[in-house]
Design a protein that fits this description.
heterodimer; A: about 200 residues; mainly alpha; globular; B: about 375 residues; mainly beta; five-stranded antiparallel sheet; 3 helices
Chain lengths: ~200, ~375
Amino acid sequence: MTATDILGLGGCGLLFVAAAAVSFPLPRLSADVRYAVMLAVAVAVFIPIGGLSVAGTMRGTTGDLSVPTLILAANACVSRIAGRTLFAPREWSALLRAVAVAGLFLYPFALGFTPFDPYTLGYGSAALTTVLLFATLAAWRAGLNLIVLVVVIAAVAYLAGAYESRNLWDYLIDPLVAFYALARLGAAGVGRYFLRRQS
Amino acid sequence: MNARQATSLAAVALAFAGLYARGLLEPSAAGFIVRQGPAETRSAAPSYKAQLLPNSSVESVHSATAIETSDGRMRAFWYGGTREGASDVAIYMSTYSPPTGKWSPERVLVSRGLVERQLQRYIRKLGNPVVGRDQRGRIWLFFVSVSVGGWAGSAINAMASDDEGENWSPPRRLIASPFFNISTLVKGPLVQLTDGTVALPAYHEFLGKFGELLRLDGEARVVGKTRLSWGKSSLQPVIVPHSETEAVGFMRYAGDPPVRVLMIRTGDGGGHWTAPIKTGLPNPNSAVASVLLAGGPLLLAYNNAEENRESLSLAVSTDFGDTWRVARTLESESQLPRAPVAEYSYPWLMQDRSGDVHVLYTWGRSRIKHVVFNQAWLEGGSQ
């Protein structure tokens, strides 16, 4: 098994553990039991069943997961187990907005509806790097540390060849987190709309 | 600025310095390497021979690809199983010996279970293989696999051989799409580039149907790509360079009538491509193959009908695709024997170092057929 396999499977395993943490009624359990349950899930997800683990099955479907997905998954685990979040709500909201914008720019064009393919910018394009640099500096100036952290981790992982992909986009975003961001922002927008109508 | 902010800013500076440096190291534009034809043809007398490849293993076979080895033999690969898309579909291999004119019994080279274990991810079925050689002489076998859904859920995998196809590396996954890395398939042959990288024609089938040229480094990692077309009607590109900067490409057409083979061109080494235009050759939504023959003519194998794959013809162009002459018909209603299912499709074309031209294609979905002829036979065609 290669290092990229280990990291890819680790990411998929983490997402499965996060899904389990959100699904189980963990807050009703004692702290010791919570940790024990999640540890058991974390081990089980990597045990091969019929030659392939749950993480491997998931990886076949989702591919390797981007840094925002992994940080969201880690936060879900921490919040359900320890009862606290890693960053302030303002930070999560800003990250989801950034992911949603990136997703709307990347996916429709990458799926071949126009001659323009923004995915090619991920192969070392100075233009993408420069836009990302200005966005990261703006986030840093606004005190949005989560976005800065995501970009730095994604850049380091890309430079280190952590995954099979040599495209920076694959470290910055994946369809799961893009859909999640759009759904969360859409739901929030709908909620605000009905609140305004009621008031 | 406090210490935490300063640390954060330093991390940003270092990360982006790395990104800019990586950008400088990425491969820049490179030209095509035009395949060198044979120094001389073996015989001026027309020669033609056809035979079916062995298949004692499975009911259904499809999508053959082949390569000449350094000792003058030829290795062919195709996929087969109980039916297309079945979980028992595997990639088969057979070797052709020109002195005896015979193919070895087929054997399984890649199975679904093997790929699943070695790629550490769920695999549902296998599909099209494509074999090619890089400038270092390594043979690469690319093949399609699907984890979820139909062919629109495909991804490409690659295996390498340093000993002419005797032994193979474990497969590795090519990452070519940001959308779950799905919907990337192969059919056309590999093209060598002057900087040592290679270009692999690929196509997408999820929502749209369009072609791309993937640029691969020495370890078959995707390090760039160029869109060959866009929209919903062009797939299975075949790229034929005819100079370092010029190439012509052909694609299967899946759009509205009139149904014709699509053609694209580049004049800058593949950096930019013309929009696809329809040639005068019919295309019943089926794969085509093309090769630049010794001396310059362009050869195209295609289904010469608008509705079905029941005829297979060879057309020749001496002006890189502007005009075509139907040179020979390999399969038609009048030619015997006919396959139980009259489908003659997915041709693969190559010219070996002796000058013989080889065509491999799906024969009735039950066998792979191998036709070998020389240019004298091709030029002697009556049609």
